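step 4 of 6: structure.
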Amino acid sequence: MATTGRVVGVNGNLVTVEFDGNVLLNEVAYVILDEKRLKSEVIRIKGNRAEMQVFEIIKGVGVGDSVEFTGNLLSVVVGPGLLGQIFDGLQNPLPQLAEKCGFFLDRGVYLDPISNETRWIFSPAAKTGDIVVRGQTLGSVPEGIFEHKIMVPFDLYGTYKVRSIVSKGEYNVKQQIAELEDENGDLIPVSMIFQWPVKKAINVYKERMKPVEPLVTQIRIIDTLFPVAAGGTYCIPGPFGAGKTVLQQLTSRYADVDIVIIAACGERAGEVVDTLKEFPELTDPRTGKSLMERTVIICNTSSMPVAAREASVYTGVTIAEYYRQMGLKVLLLADSTSRWAQAMREMSGRLEEIPGEEAFPAYLESVIAAFYERAGIVKNIDGSIGSVTIGGTVSPAGGNFEEPVTQATLKVVGAFHGLSRERSDARRYPAIHPLESWSKYSGSVNVEKAEYARQVLFRSEEVSQMMKVVGEEGTSIDDFINYLKGEFLDSVYLQQNAFDQVDASTTKDRQKYVFDKLLLILLAELKLTHKDEARSYFNQMRQKFLDWNGSHIDSDEFKKGETEIMDMLASKSMESVEEINEKLNSLV
Amino acid sequence: MQKIYNRIEEIKGNVVTVRADGIKYGELAEITSAHGKSLAEVILLYEDKVSLQVFAGGRGVSTGDEVRFLSRPMMVSFSDNLLGRIFNGRGNPRDNGPELTENLIEIGGPSVNPAKRIIPRNMIRTGIPMIDVFNSLVESQKLPIFSISGEPYNELLARIAMQAEVDLIILGGCGLKYDDYLFFKERLEQGGSLSRAIFFVHTASDPVVECLMVPDICLAVAEKFALKGKKVLVLISDMTNFSDAMKEIAITMDQVPSNRGYPGDLYSKLAARYEKAVDFEGQGSITILAVTTMPGDDVTHPVPDNTGYITEGQFYLRNGRIEPFGSLSRLKQLVNGKTRDDHRPLMDGMIKLYASFKETLDKKSMGFRMSDWDEKLLKYGELFEKELMALSVNIPLEKALDKGWEILAACFTPEETGMRTGLTDQYWPKQ
C-alpha cells in the first residue's frame, strides 16, 4: 500500500509532512490541495517526518492537508519524440500546457512528456530468443534525421531473453513492442519509453574515453584560442550584460553537434522565447532541416517555482545522456548554473542547514562536480561513440570570479571562457577575456600558431599598461606597433559580429585560412616611422579586414579583399610576403 | 466561516504568532488593536502555530488583541474606476476618492507560460536620445534604472511617464519620500497624464510591510489591464527599498542571511516581480521600468547585482545623464534593425569612439601630451555629451541619428570611425 501523510508545517515552498510507512529520499510525493495535486520531492527524513520541496506555488496549503507518496524517484521519461520539444524543469511540455491552460502556468497540471498519439515506424533489430542486457538495441524508429534506437530499459539489470518482439510496423510509444524474460522466468513487457531517475548518471557503456576531438563552435576566439572538446566541459562566467546568453545562443545554433539540449535554468523568459520562436524558422546548415528538430529545450525561467529550477539541469543532462547512448554527439547548454546553485541555497536555508561560504550549502562543490562529471565521450555497448559536452554559464555575484560557484566550477571544467565587463562595455564581443581565459583541450588551429597570437596579445597589453604611465610620447615606435598589432588582432579576429550574417559564424576551414593571413600581418616587420602613420595604417588595415570578414568565402569580394590586404601588407613590409610566409611556417 | 482568536503568543518586530487550526499559507487575517485595524498575512505554519506579518507593524499590538482570519489571500479591486486614482500599499485610497471594493482580484498570481510569450517587436519611443538611439526601450521589456541617491531618477521616471507612447501608466512607490510622491502627482497633473495613470504609493513613513505589497498590487492590476488589450507601463521607485523591507522581515523570521543580510531568495523574489513584464499575443502588454538605487554607487551590492541578472539590461544614471557604459537594453536588437539601417552601426561606432575618448581623458588628466588623434577624440567627446547625452535633449530618433553623423563628421574622417565603407558613403554629411 502506498505511503500517505499529512502536512504539519509550511515554510515557503518547504513543507513538513508526517507519514506512515516507508519513504525514500528524493521520492516524489503529491500534496493534495482541493482538486489539485502539487508535485514535491522528499529532501530530508527525520523519524516519521519528511521535509519536501514543493515544485509549485505553495499558496493555500494548510496544516492537515493530505500527501500521497509515489514510491518513485524524480524521473524523466525517455523515448522517441523528445526532440523538438519544450519542457519545463519537470518535463511538462509547455506548448501543450498552453493549449490547455492559456497564458498562465496553472499549478498541479501535469501532462505526458511524450505524446502517445504519434505513431512511430518501428523496425525490430533483436529476434525472439536473443539474450539481451540493459541498453542493448531492440529496434529503431526514425526520429527526424536520426535513427532513434529503442533500447532495453536501463533499469533492467541482469540478462534477459527476448520472448517476443513485434514485427515492423507503426506503434504508439506506450504500446508493448517486446516481452523480456528474466532469470526467474518472469515476463517483463517493454514499450518504446521508460523512466530514469534524473539524479543518477546513465552508465550503460563499455568505456569512457578521453575527450580529444575538438567541438567546433564557429566562434573564432573559442575555436582558435580556447577550444572545447566533444565530451568535455567548459564554463562561461561573466557579470550581467557581458553576453553569456548571446554566446550560448550562438553556440546552440552553429556548433558542430547532432543534438543540442538547452537548459534555461532560472534565467529570463524573454531569452528563451528568442530560441523558442527562432529555432523552428532557422535551418540547420548540416541537414537543411529546421534547427528545432535537433533541439530539446528545458525551460524553467526565473519566475517559475524555485525547486523545479533545481531539477531542470538534471532533466537536461539525463536526456542528453539518453541520446548519447545512440552514438550521437550531444551538447548541453546550462544557463545559468548559478541560479541552480542559488536554488540549492534557498532550500538549504529553509532546512536550516549550517551555511558555508556566502550561505551556499557545504555540499555545493561536490554537487557541481558530480553534475559536470556527467559529461563525457563514451564507447557504447554496440561500439558506437557518443558524447555529452556540457557548457554552463555562471553568473557570479558582483561579477567577482572569487565567489563559491565560479570557483567550484573552475575546479572541474576543461575550459574557462571568462567574460569581462571592460570588454563588453567597450562593445568588444564576444567579451571572452583573451588573457585570463584558458582551455586544456587542443583546437582546430595549430597550437604554436595560436600561442604566437596570444604572445602578441600579451605584448600589446604590456605596452598598453606602460603607455598609461609614460604616455604615447614615451613609447618607442616598435612598442607602439606591437600595441597596435594586438589591438588589430583583437578587433578583426577575436571580435565577431553576431548580427552579421556572414561574420556570425566562421567555419573551421575559414578560421584556419584567415588566421594564417592575419598572422602574416602580425609577423611582418613594418616600415612605419611615425605613430600617426602607424595608427592610420592599422586603421585602414582594420577597415579592409572587417569588410573581408563580412564577405562570403566563395565570393569575388572575398578574393578581392584578400588581394587588397596582401597588397597593403606588401606596401609597408620590410620583407616580401614569401619571406613572412616562411616565418609563419617556421612557427610550427 | 471566519475564525477569531484572542490570544497572540509571540510578537517580534512586525511578525506575530497565534495558535490556530485550518489556516492556509498566504491567508489574510485582520488584527484589531487599540490603535485600529490592520491586515496581516500568514507567512509560516508549523503544527498549530501560525505566524503572520502585520501590515501596520507590530508596534501597539497587544497579546490580547483579536485576530480574525478572512479565509482569503490578499486581493485588490480591479476596474476602470482605478484610473486617475491614488492608493496606498494596501490598496486603500490615498486621495479623497471612495474606497473600491468591487471585482477583487488575487495578487501574485502564477507566471506566464514561456511558450505563450512572443518575441518583443515594438519600440516604445521616449524622445530621449540616450534611450531611443543607444538603448531602445521595447514593449514588454523590464529595465531598472541604476542610480545613486541624489540623481534625478524620479524626474526621469516622470518624464518617461508623460512622453512614453503607452495607454496606461501604473506608478508604484516603495518607500517614496513624501515630497517625491507630491512631485510625481504634480508633474502628472500638470502634464495632463494623471487620467491615464494609477498610483500605488507606499511612502517612507508608512509601515514597512505595506512596501512589500506595492509591486505585487501594481503588477496584478497591470496584468488585468494588459489582458484587456492595454499597453501598460509600470514605473516603480524604488526596488532597493522593497528589497530592504524583505530583508527586515527575513531577519525577524530568523532566516539565514546569504549576502549582506539579504535573504537567499532575493533573486527569486525580485525575478517573480520583474518577470511579470510580458506581451500577451493579441492582447496588451506590460513594460516595467524600476529605479534601483545603489548604496554607495556599488553595482555589486546584492540588490542591483541580482536585478541586473533578471532584467533585460539597465540604465545607469550618473551625473544627471544616462551613461553609455554599462547601460544596456538587451532587446534593442529586436527593434533597432527596423528603424533605419544606420541605427545599429552608428550606435556601436559612436560608443566605441566614446570609450576611446574616455581613455584620452584619463591620459590628459595625467598630463600627457595630446596627439592629433587625442585632440579629435576630445572634441568628439565634448560634442557627444552636450548634443546627445544631456537629459534635456528632447528629439525624435531620426533627428538624433542625423545629429550623430553630424558630430562624427565634425571630428573625424570616415575611415577613422571604424565603420564599413558602404555606410559612411551613404550617410556621411556632405559639405
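step 5 of 6: annotate
 - Chain B touches chain A through 83 residues (CB under 8 Å).
 - The domain at 79-333 of chain B is CATH 3.40.50.12240 (Rossmann fold).
step 6 of 6: archive
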